[in-house]
Target: FTP domain-containing protein
Amino acid sequence: MLFDDFPDVEVARTPGGALQSIDHAQQPWAPKPQGQAVAAIATAKDVAEQYLKEIASEYKINSEVNSLTAPDFDLEFEQERPRFRSTAVIYQQTFNHWPVWGAQLSVTVREDNQVLNSSSTLHTGASGPDLLPDDAKFIKNSVTEEDIAASLGVPVGRDGISFSEKFKEKTEDEKKDKQRILVYRYSAKGRQEQAGDSPPILAFAEVPEKIEDGKYYVVREALFSLPVSGYGSLNWRAFVEVETGSIIYLQALTAGLTGLVFSRDPVTKLGHRGPLPAGDVVDLNLLRDRVFLPDTVTSSPQRLEGRFAAIKEFSLPIRVPPATTTGEFNDSVDSDTFAAVNAYYHVTKLFRLLGELGFWVKDFFNETKLPVPVDHRGFDDNVNAQAPGNATGTGSGGFIFGRADPNSRVGMAADFRVATHEFGHALLWDAIHWPGFGFAHSPGDSLAAIYSDPGSDAPDRFDTFPWSTKVRRRHDRKVTDGWAWDGPEYRRDDAAYYRREQVLSTTLFRLYRAIGGDAIGDINRQNWASRYTLYLILGGIATITTTMPMPYQYVSAMIAADNGTVLGHPGGAVRKVIRWAFEKQGLYHPPGTPDPGVVTEGPPPAVDVYIDDGRDGEYDYNLLSDNTPGIWNRHAADEGQANQTPQPGVQNYCYVAVKNRGTGPADRVRVALYQANNPMPTIWPSHFNIREIKYRTDALDGNKQEQQIFGPFAWVPDNNPLFDRDCVLAAVTADGDLPNIDKSTALSCAKEPIDFGNLVPFDNNLAVRYFDRPRST
Model:
């Protein structure tokens, strides 16, 4: 039967002519007696089956409604699904009883047993997948967390891949039943499907060459959770091809409320080309980003209220909080709604950041009532922003944002850096029941600068608020200009402590730069350094309980935070760089520095032995080097100090030079030499074997006044042709200054495997030297 010519039936077909749907809304289809009374057709399934038999050829199924007319595939009844005043009767296309993903035939039957419509997503012109080998791994086995983690290049656990606890309690057979076997038509373009608006996109390994675009494959479905920056913990679906183990389909299960915001301010995004807040509205509108608005609580109409933040009016001018009935906020940058959406999005994003970094929100806001109120149009429409305390002064009372510029209607909430600054106050209200540290205005400038730096196009990297014409602060202040701890600018600061804030932000930005923030062009390294530094800043705040006139206690709290597992890495490797960053900004001078105050770098620790890797004991950012001055090789134990290219397969001799930048002498100095057992060493300690330890009994003078040479260390470069260069690692130890790999430190990085690129550059007790081998001719 063809319905195309029926005026009261609407038919939809694909461009190729295949039937997609038939709508009988104007004249529902009624079953006909076939040797029995119509009343005997008792169920919606009976009605649907008779209907489909009548139009089987149109949907390219057989008249028995159990297979497609094309070979390989069958059609199986799946379910009767109750809907509003109707029942959906659903049939599933299958291969070997395995469902074909996205291939169904549905018939909607009203309560009076008449068909309202039918629709098809059947793959009618398809050929089934190739025969599988008997040992196809994921036919026999379930997919594990480790399988997914390996494919996506992320860890397993709280900061990475995790299955539900209920699933993990199941037996292997129960897990296999839960993880469906499906048949999926691979699409190279659709490999990572975008469900909902602004979904996260992951980068992961390419499929093997044998996986061809457009072909059908047998897959096992795996459902898991994975946190993603800006989204928090999300649920995901992956299809794992059962033979190769490759993920050939990935979907983030996101959907919901969306809005237009400045995810990055225009100057951070475009540099000098970015229009300022008072710029042309048309130009500013072009820079809006559509984002998913997370954690909202469902309401009708939908308001900007969620788990962590709720748009409220509690200061002049009165602006009714916006709402939507469409699930979208698509408003101009100069509107109240745009200000509100940015306020909700940025504040929520900052709360969610805590979880992404591995903290519990209650670690920071146990005396704050959530969601906090956020006023997107406050201060009588003047330029300002604020994070007031609650009624008892023991937690956050929310956020208030005014205009970004007196000559613009754009709200200050559109500047993520400003929102981040205010979030710093909210953290302190709960931690120490005061909005400032005492030694600085807040951590807000530091958080804003360090979060925003990776990938920034701002023309001046050290302008903390590059989009603002009113907030003019920097994070590259020089000690010699008076911007030191207890320096002239520090001492003459007013009660707001904005000068001290710049001393702190310069200090903490130096820490970020040293551990990878200065890896310009390497966005992954910068992101790692940014998140690690943010973790340390926040971890320090989580343990302090009172205001402080100087940051000594806070430095100690940050160092203590650098242990255990930090963002999936063994902690402890950065602790010396934390101390150094504050030292370089003038901390650790003895009290009582006469006026005008400190104008020089602070003193180092009493003992600080080091091997020169080209930085003379300092921690400015540097890659592991093949030209480390403090380590060299000789062909003979002749105490020569010029490096000689190692000779593979025979005994060579290494020497190591040690100095002490500490203020006092170093006693019982000893050096251990390790040789790489891998042509491309990356993991400590498994990629290294110890060769020898050398000791000195005489003290090593401080202040870099003396150098001691340790050696010769006998070693034999590997004769394996896979080694195109050799690598040795030296570690110096002295009383009062242990390397971070010393197990007596109890640091996680000393006890667990760690990427030695995240270990050696952050400890001047350690140094690596690569020796390139001469190329054969």
Remarks:
- The chain has five domains: 10-120, 137-252, 262-433, 436-603, 609-772.
